[in-house]
Specification:
Elements (H helix, E strand, L loop, with lengths): L1 H16 L55 H19 L3 H5 L11 H14 L1 E14 L3 E13 L6 E15 L2 E11 L4
């Protein structure tokens, strides 16, 4: 059972992000995506942005994430539509639709490795990702960072094993040829007591 849970935890992290750098260590509660060895001592996923000071969010005194104020309405709609498509395409296990919102030249992962991992995930697991409190937290005409509280429900039909995971995610979009595409993802999972 422990191996099933460890496998589900690793799969959940794959599902949360489905975009991991194959050259850099990516740490999480389930360990590095590169080495597959679960570790309970590591706590954050890092998807390849070289200067972590470029990605982050601030919370107001009432616990809400602060929204970027410089986003033109047309771009706000486009970014949020791209984020929703990213979530919905994954939930519907539509690989072509999913890949249509993923950058072909991402900063935080390898496109071909991500494609392979997502196909394997769709074949082996049933998942539902639910995003709440979706907020654009940083914006310029080339990049937008979208914060969300994310819930992942994962089910492995073969074993019947289930895993639920909550966390905060920042999805970084780059504007390429007029479209907003996912270029890197950061996830911080909630620790379980």
């Amino acid at each position: 059972m422990r191996l099933i849970i460890q496998g589900l935890t690793l799969a959940a992290l794959t599902l949360v992000l489905a975009a991991c750098n194959d050259k850099e260590e990516v740490n999480s509660e389930a360990g590095s995506v590169n080495d597959g060895a679960p570790s309970q001592s590591e706590s954050a996923l890092d998807h390849g942005v070289k200067d972590k000071s470029d990605v982050g969010f601030e919370m107001s005194s009432d616990g809400n994430v602060e929204e970027a104020t410089n986003v033109p309405e047309k771009e706000k709609t486009a970014v949020l539509n791209a984020f929703n498509e990213y979530i919905e395409a994954f939930n519907e296990e539509d690989i072509d639709r999913y890949l249509s919102v993923i950058s072909k030249k991402p900063e935080g992962f390898n496109y071909e490795d991500d494609k392979k991992m997502v196909i394997e995930t769709f074949e082996n697991y049933d998942t539902v990702r639910t995003a709440e409190d979706v907020t654009i937290i940083e914006y310029n005409d080339k990049e937008a960072q979208v914060y969300s509280n994310l819930h992942i429900a994962l089910h492995e039909p073969g074993s019947g094993a289930k895993l639920d995971r909550n966390g905060r995610q920042v999805t970084v979009f780059a504007k390429e040829e007029g479209k907003w595409l996912v270029t890197s993802v950061y996830f911080i999972g909630e620790t379980s007591e």
